[in-house]
């Protein structure tokens, strides 16, 4: 665990305090009482290596690995296909969001249990403009906007229908909520997220990640 996998540039395997980001993210979900099982979709060549990493964590809940696809959408669909039919709710989360608060996971799961579909999101702090060919067309009121994060939680049957419809229509969405919205069956609820729930995609994000992790470690030590 203390060594980055040779030759990889995939973000979920970048090291954060000696452990891949993926491991930090899994640790958060292992702390969630409402989470009974964790399923991770990865490239086929990464499966055995990742299993070894998680085995060293001695997880208190089942952690399974499935082969992902060529896109996020296909990877999530592959994972859904392995779930027991009596599964009630599914939480989909980005592997590179390791600073999700377990309490927030519990909140969005509880909301989805009531509404059928719920996501985490934050209101943008910057002014948002709609443009066309580098020209501003109008300013969009921020109170009508959110920046969607993960986890995104849905009833299993609803999410399966959404993926089936998207596949039949050759529709590709940027998140799971966009697939569910197309069904027009339920309204997707929003639970207030956190600006700490960052998605690590750039080198500068790693600098912030090290700061957040140091603060988390300090709080745990103090408690």
Assigned CATH architecture: Alpha-Beta Complex
Shape: globular
Could you tell me the mean pLDDT?
A: 92
User: In which order are the strands of the major sheet placed?
Assistant: 5-9-6-10
- How far do the termini sit from each other? 26 Å
CATH topology: the name is Spore Coat Polysaccharide Biosynthesis Protein SpsA, Chain A
Count helical runs: 7
Report the major sheet: 4 strands, mixed
Q: CATH class, please? A: Alpha Beta
Please, could you describe this protein's structure?
There is one protein chain. With 223 residues, the chain is of the alpha/beta class. It has one domain: Spore Coat Polysaccharide Biosynthesis Protein SpsA, Chain A, CATH 3.90.550. It has helices spanning 21-30, 47-56, 72-80, 102-115, 156-169, 176-183, 203-222; strands at residues 15-16, 19-20, 38-42, 63-67, 89-92, 117-122, 128-132, 135-140, 147-155, 189-192. It has a 4-stranded mixed β-sheet, with helices on both faces. The protein has a two-stranded antiparallel ribbon with strand order 1-2. Strands 3-4 form a two-stranded parallel ribbon. Strand 1 and strand 2 (19-20) form a beta hairpin. The chain is globular, with a radius of gyration of 18 Å. Mean pLDDT is 92; it is low at 1-9.
